[in-house]
Amino acid sequence: QTVLQGIILLPLRVICIVFILLLAWLSASIATCCQPGRGFLPLKGWRRRMIQTTLSSLTRMAYFVMGFQVKVKGKAASLPEAPIFVAAPHSSFFDAIICALTGMPSIVSRAENLSTPVFGTILGALQPVAVSRQDPDSRKNTVAEITRRALSRGQWPQVM
């Protein structure tokens, strides 16, 4: 009986996850379409709210479809309390659920990830601090950008 359930559930889960991923891509594309100051200025107004609500909800839904139920204990620190927060160790796809639960903060990511089809568009909507492994000054530039965002007095979202 469990084999039969797996044969039926696996394709349904894959179809649902692909559909959710396409909705997330569409939402990210709409929110970043014709964005002024792309990447240099923070998203504001409806664009930021759309990213926070839509992508957060879709990410939670995708994890639920995959069979994960996340229970949060406590309360995440707000932007004024902690402009930067750390999630560690960040070595798996579970980092996305942390993003969804904390309001879709900006993240630090490899610059190459932004050119990945579909995921790159979604990642770009989070306005990540892009780290280039080819640039010898990348570490210094990343620290400077994180500092700039942290000291922006709430203009930028939290940085994870």
From TrEMBL:
It is found in: Membrane. Residues 70-156 form the Phospholipid/glycerol acyltransferase domain. The keyword Isomerase does not apply. Pfam families: Acyltransferase. It comes from the Eukaryota. SUPFAM superfamilies: Glycerol-3-phosphate (1)-acyltransferase (SSF69593). One of its GO terms (molecular function) is lysophosphatidic acid acyltransferase activity. GO terms for biological process: lipid metabolic process. Its main location: membrane. Keywords: Acyltransferase, Lipid metabolism, Membrane, Transferase, Transmembrane, Transmembrane helix. This is PCAT2 acyltransferase. It comes from Sylvia atricapilla.
